[in-house]
Amino acid sequence: MNDYLNTINGKAVGSDKTFESINPATGEAIGRVPVSSQRQVAEAVAAARAAQPAWAARPDAERKALMMKVAEVINRNAAYLAEWVTREQGKPLGGVGPDQVPGARFEIWGCEVWTQVPASLDLPVEVAFEDDTRRDEVHRKPYGVVAAVAPWNWPLLIAIWQIVPSIRAGNTVVLKPSEYTSIGTLELVRLINEVLPPGVVNTVSGTGEVGSWLVSDPGVDKVMFTGSGPTGAKIAQAAAKNLVPATLELGGNDAAIMLPDADPKAMAMGLFWGAFINMGQTCACAKRLYVPESLFEPTVQALKELAEAMPMGDGLKDGVVMGPIQNKMQYDKVVKLVESAKQQGGTIVCGGQPQGGAGYFYPLTLVTGLKDGDRLVDEEQFGPVLPIIKYRDVEDAIASANRLDVGLGASVWSSDVEKAKQVAGRIQAGTVWINQHGMIHPMVPFGGVKGSGYGVEFGLDGLKSVTQPQVISIKK
């Protein structure tokens, strides 16, 4: 079993302590990962701080060209990185591109695209005001050192979302990967360091304690975090002590609302992947589906047919579409929520029983007979389970969608787009999709409201979020 190392100031760095990364499909250890010490965290931040002035001073065109070289490195190593995602995170290899099964190859393709797009964007000087007496310009400046804490569900893609806009804008980065999915992320950073100057992107691996040291380090100027609400609150508190701004993309419990004129058969596939992409382990998955009484039975039947037809297993094997839950903690949570649904009067349409054997496999599960207030409806399951809730009046469905203290995404499904837009505008969520769910795009801002965090990523707004404005005011 091999050891996989951090990258600090362009060099491979190990630690006295290590832990094993586990393949969630087999339960087998697949590599050893360093547990970074507090001293190593400080050294990584210091390396990033030392490298930042020269990196920011490079011509913008030069940084953009280096971003394209990073994309080329990802492309050349796509097969290697995709295999690590499957072995460590669990999602099947799947296909490449937006129309393919969204597995590990899709994740690495996304890493390439989300690198190329920030490289294509400009941050020109904006003229805020000008008359005969003065000219006021707004220049975008990097913060300095960005501390990034990545999650385990899309471990490489979300790391790229944090890294690339930050360094494109002239910041340097210290990244802490999830302790559940460290190896693929460490290898990604090792590879992109082949084309980046030392110290521009660094890693520190380990438990949540390592992340706490990182976001609390006084050398950090900006924090980016994707993960759970409770952890996000702790990170926000740590950043606030140093008056450091943060971008927090936290959990959601996305509502999907079918309107009475929706077509269950035509929309079933979109609804299915909106709920079950990455085994439901995506912040912006549809996690509760509200369906009018008139469409309830055909909708449930269409989703049941799809769920029962999807092959599940080790994602390295051919033909597998659905993988395991990534870790035991999350697996146990899913099991408990389904059991609570049974106790609260829910009907299991399909799935609903642990499969047993090696790996954290749980069948795709549809549950009916629940209502607002039941645990599986109110708590984010972050797994392959979807409660389908019957409603009589659209006003009730909108109220249900808005009643929780989360607001990452939502969706409205209808044959009448204008009618759907009217409903969408009343839903409290950072993004409301119409006749699709979770369809993010690298040019479109993405972020949550309420308990789902604050700040945005992607596109020009996301690039601006890793910069701070400087006004230069000129007297004429």
* Overall residue-averaged pLDDT value: 97
Measured between the Cα atoms of the first and last residue, the distance is 68 Å
How many domains in all?
2
Number of DSSP-assigned strands: 22
Measured by DSSP, the beta-strand proportion falls in: 15-25%
Query: What's the helix count?
Result: 15
CATH architecture verdict of the largest domain: 3-Layer(aba) Sandwich
CATH topology value of the largest domain: Aldehyde Dehydrogenase, Chain A, domain 1
What does the oligomeric state look like here?
single chain
CATH class of the largest domain: Alpha Beta
Largest sheet: 7 strands, mixed
Class of secondary structure makeup? alpha/beta
Residues in helix, %: 25-40%
- Find the CATH superfamily of the largest domain: Aldehyde Dehydrogenase, Chain A, domain 1
Poorly predicted residue ranges: none
Strand order in the sheet with the most strands: 14-15-16-13-12-18-19
Radius of gyration, rounded?
23 Å
Overview of the molecule:
The chain has helices at residues 38-57, 60-76, 78-88, 104-120, 155-168, 182-192, 208-216, 229-241, 264-276, 296-309, 328-343, 375-378, 394-402, 417-424, 459-464, and strands at residues 6-8, 11-13, 18-22, 29-34, 126-130, 134-142, 145-149, 172-176, 201-203, 222-226, 246-249, 254-258, 286-292, 347-350, 365-368, 385-391, 406-407, 409-413, 431-434, 449-450, 453-454, 467-475. It is an alpha/beta fold and 476 residues long. It folds into 2 domains: 6-250 and 452-475, Aldehyde Dehydrogenase, Chain A, domain 1 (3-Layer(aba) Sandwich); 254-441, Aldehyde Dehydrogenase, Chain A, domain 2. The chain has a 7-stranded mixed sheet with strand order 14-15-16-13-12-18-19, sandwiched between helices. The chain has a 6-stranded mixed sheet with strand order 9-8-7-10-11-21, sandwiched between helices. The protein has a 3-stranded antiparallel sheet with strand order 5-6-22, with no helix packed on it. Strand 5 (126-130) and strand 6 (134-142) form a beta hairpin. Helix 3 runs antiparallel to helix 6 (182-192). The longest helix has 20 residues, at 38-57. It is globular, with a radius of gyration of 23 Å.
